[in-house]
Amino acid sequence: MAAGCGALGWSLVFAEVTDNGPAANVKVLPAGMSRAEMRELMEGYERDLGVKCSYCHVKDHDSGAFDYASDESPAKQTTRVMISMLDDINGKYLAQLSNDRRYAVPVTCGSCHQGRSTPPEYEAR
Q: Which element (helix H / strand E) includes 107?
């Protein structure tokens, strides 16, 4: 399974995954996503953006453990919008070009971010 923003055709992807129960605060992620699928997807975001969990997820003030379900992080909100954008690009626009092999590879966070939290500025050649 491919990892990265939008590569799996899923929309918003942030939720709490614990060892003791189902994910919490799942916005539009398909029901039944396994812990392994969630972990793989999040690791893809880490690679694509060059960040760690703390970039989008906050820690509980008392326990110090990540509160994956929290919506407190502004970066998490921005990321949700960006994931929706990628879903549109891949699902609506590139899908219309499915007969052209140049557009067979989906756009991911890494397509623009190139391993950086902020995409590098485009420099024309």
A: none
